[in-house]
Amino acid sequence: MVWLASRNTRIDTENAFRVGPLIAATEARGQSVVRLNFGEPDFPVPAPIVATLKQALDGGATRYCDPQGTPELRQAIATHVGSRRGFEVDPATVVVFPGGKPAIGLSQQVYCEPGDEVIYPSPGFPIYESFIRYVGAVPVPLHLDAGNGFSFDADALADLITPRTRMIYLNFPSNPTGGVASRAQIERLAAVIDARCGPDVRIFSDEIYEDILFDGAEHFSIASLPSMRSRTVIASGFSKSFAWTGGRVGYAVLPNREEAECFRRLNINYFSCVPPYNQSAAITALESAEVWQAVSEMTRTFERRRDLVCDGVAALDGFTVQRPGGAFYLFPGIEGVCDALDLIGFHANLPDELRLKTSPSGLFQLFALDAHGVAVLDRRAFGQIGADGHHYLRLSIAAADETLLEGIAALKNASSDVAGLKRFLQDGLWEAML
Ligand SMILES: Cc1ncc(COP(=O)(O)O)c(C=O)c1O
Known about the structure:
By secondary structure, the chain is of the alpha/beta class. The protein folds into 2 domains: 6-32 and 292-433, Aspartate Aminotransferase, domain 1 (Alpha-Beta Complex); 61-288, Type I PLP-dependent aspartate aminotransferase-like (Major domain) (Aspartate Aminotransferase, domain 2), CATH 3.40.640.10. It has helices spanning 15-28, 47-58, 71-85, 102-111, 126-132, 154-160, 183-196, 226-229, 257-270, 276-287, 289-314, 335-340, 343-348, 352-355, 360-372, 401-416, 418-427; strands spanning 34-35, 94-97, 117-122, 138-143, 165-171, 202-206, 232-237, 250-253, 329-330, 374-375, 377-378, 393-396. A 7-stranded mixed sheet has the order 2-8-7-6-5-3-4, sandwiched between helices. A 3-stranded antiparallel sheet has the order 9-12-11. A two-stranded parallel sheet has the order 1-10. The longest helix has 26 residues, at 289-314. The structure holds pyridoxal-5'-phosphate. Pyridoxal-5'-phosphate is lined by residues 39, 99-101, 125, 171, 175, 206, 208, 237, 239, 245, 250.
């Protein structure tokens, strides 16, 4: 065994990336795979963004630049974020990162002392939970319940806040549930935070799906409430709205310049700067009317697919579905499937070293990929603490209609293939997939 510092055992991963090698292995056996596992829009990057990228490269924007983000991009972000949320944003409080993800873990490094408590939604984006123990803080999941539409409930939040609470993660529209909070719900959360938290408690408001909203809903940020502004980190980015996951540009707006300076220093220590050609193109993304037209068309397509997939999945035996209000995921319950296939009993009887690595829905996920060629993610991929007994899958709807219908057909076949599942579980090859 190589020697590694103990903190390596305290960080987890994002299973969406772990599934890649399993898909490759399945395809290598000759089984084609319908990919409904990845949180990546299946649209091209809008043309004006690509044009600016090329121009910036041709123009030599290939050197080190401001570690906090170029002044031009920070100004564009300040204008964009401020005008949408109804207050003025100082560009010196904006920090640019390589994607939306780094701000999540870096904020725990900036704000948390060992023993501090961090509240986050579960199911939620896995990186919230993944990092907390790495910085010595204590994860406090707020469990979202299908029974009340997976909402981040104000009373549940009130019960979790203690004098050690240091950060609260919010994410609307949400990954993986597609849940959207109304202004009234956000006001209730703010009232609880106002009443229970000291001024040093930080809200990390992950708004990366802010543009992907359905049914005429409008994005409302908790930072738009005056009492929340001075304690909220607004985080967003360019991966989802602009179908530009490979560009690796995200940002946070910090409550004040001092806090922004801490992130700037971490940027210098970790990666020096975000490539300047990508930052130039990010300005185009925010400022081009043609780009916003493309974002709106993409969102309407997701909305139409949401209906297609909801109707298709709701018709499957053993699946229950909530209609998401935003993002591009469906998070159906599959307790009925796990029951009918006796996966709950099978999982309960596994030896500890296997049982703790998976779940009934996790076993179904592996079987659906291996035998029926459909890649999805299970509930545990979105926060492991307290996930036991919750049987869900996440399906990404970022795929063409035919692909989505093929995926639904494959899930239907998998959920009724008792003999195939028996063979799959008996031959034991799934153990190597964990
Ligand atoms: C809620 C949420 N926050 C942040 C991110 C990270 O985005 P990026 O790919 O820009 O790092 C994702 C990506 O899936 C996400 O779902």
